[in-house]
Design brief:
Blueprint: H1 6-20, H2 27-37, H3 39-45, E1 50-57, E2 60-68, E3 72-78, H4 87-97, E4 103-108, H5 113-118, E5 122-123, E6 128-130, E7 133-141, H6 143-152
Parallel strand pairs: 3-4
Antiparallel strand pairs: 1-2, 2-3, 4-7, 5-7, 6-7
Helix pairs in contact: 1-2, 1-3
């Protein structure tokens, strides 16, 4: 993601969040997410520990993904008008390809759990809440870690 993308990326995240997640959260959770998804929030997280990607289709940002510490999917949102068109799948694949860990984790919003399960993630604990945001911890073991574990036996 480039600086020029920050406001458009923020707008995509907010549209997706408001259409799928916000109604199930308290006002505290919604306000907290607004801060996280703001252009300034993305800018503050830019650095070597955060990979931020956009799905750009002829200059139009259709999706946003963020991978923290090369092992945690911190953000994955697709514009509601572009959902179910492979945008989220493409972004998730790109993030996972950049992971440098045996496991990739995500604190999935409850409406997104089935999406992550279809892409190899499994629930890894109880539903939790932090700053008003409700999430399901999930994990995906990377193929190279599975291969190494199999070879050790």
């Amino acid at each position: 993601m480039q600086d020029i993308d920050l406001h458009a990326a923020s707008a995509v995240c907010m549209r997706a969040f408001l259409s799928t997640v916000a109604s199930s959260l308290s006002s505290i959770g919604v306000d907290n997410f607004r801060t996280i998804a703001a252009a300034d929030g993305f800018a503050q997280r830019t650095g070597p520990d955060s990979l931020q990607l956009v799905y750009d289709d002829v200059g139009v940002i259709k999706g946003v993904g963020e991978l923290k510490q090369r092992r945690h999917v911190a953000m994955l949102f697709v514009d509601p008008a572009c959902q179910r068109q492979g945008v989220g799948e493409a972004l998730l694949a790109a993030l996972i390809a950049q992971a440098h860990a045996d496991e990739v984790t995500v604190s999935a919003s409850l409406p997104s759990v089935a999406f992550y399960q279809r892409h190899g993630f499994a629930c890894s604990g109880e539903v939790g809440e932090s700053a008003g945001l409700v999430y399901q911890p999930m994990v995906r073991t990377m193929p190279r870690a599975i291969e190494e574990a199999t070879e050790e036996r």
